[in-house]
Each structure stands twice: as structure tokens, then as C-alpha cells.
Design brief:
mainly beta, Immunoglobulin-like, 6-stranded mixed beta sheet, about 45% strand
């Protein structure tokens, strides 16, 4: 089984960015693997059964950050144009961890793949 994980951090004030919606979709099959939310400290940790992983498929991990920024009182009047963070990747090893930390701000983000243990 593969593990898809993340830690979302508010780059504007250094706090955890919790409650953000997250979905993982197999683009080749056009179906959702999961739809959930990061927890209140911005952590995502989802298991994906090996039986449903297609190593040839492209997967799309989407973080719905627009609602998160709308809920932050200190950014209410600011212009925010980014509604989602989209990461497209392959699951090449069905038994690996795919960790994508994200530092986000209202109109930018930084992410990387950190191969888990």
C-alpha cells in the first residue's frame, strides 16, 4: 500500500494550515481515490491500496486553499486569485510513501516531494 501524506503550513505567519480540502484523482481512469481534509494541524496521511494503484497512471493531488484563505480574518480584504494547489505525479512504487509538504500564502506556494521512509 502507498501512503500519500502532506503537511500544509501558512507561509504568511508560520502557523499550521488546517482544514484544507484534499482530493486524489487517477487522471487516466478519471476517478477519485480519496476526498478528505487535512487535520487541524495541516497533516494528511492517507493509505492507498496496492490493488487500485496503476503505476502507469498520472495522479492529481488537489488542495482547496481558496476556502482556507477566505476564512483567515487577516486576509479578508486582500486580493487572492489562487483557489487550488495542484500536484500531478506518478505512483511508481505501490509500497512507498509520497510526502508533499506545502508552504502556502494567499497567492503563491512552495512544494516538493519528500520520499518517505
Amino acid at each position: 500500500m502507498a501512503i500519500i501524506s502532506s503537511h500544509t503550513l501558512n507561509g504568511s505567519d508560520g502557523t499550521h494550515a488546517g482544514g484544507i480540502s484534499v482530493s486524489l484523482k487517477n487522471l487516466n481512469a478519471n476517478n477519485y481515490v480519496f476526498q478528505t481534509f487535512v487535520d487541524n494541524v495541516g497533516r494528511l496521511n492517507e493509505s492507498v491500496s496496492s490493488e487500485i494503484i496503476d503505476e502507469n497512471a498520472t495522479y492529481e493531488l488537489v488542495f482547496g486553499t481558496g476556502h482556507y484563505w477566505s476564512s483567515q480574518n487577516k486576509f479578508k480584504g486582500d486580493t487572492k486569485i489562487m483557489e487550488e494547489i495542484v500536484i500531478r505525479f506518478k505512483i511508481l512504487n505501490k509500497d512507498s510513501k509520497y510526502h508533499f509538504p506545502i508552504i502556502l500564502s494567499p497567492n503563491s506556494y512552495s512544494t516538493w516531494w519528500s520520499q518517505g521512509e
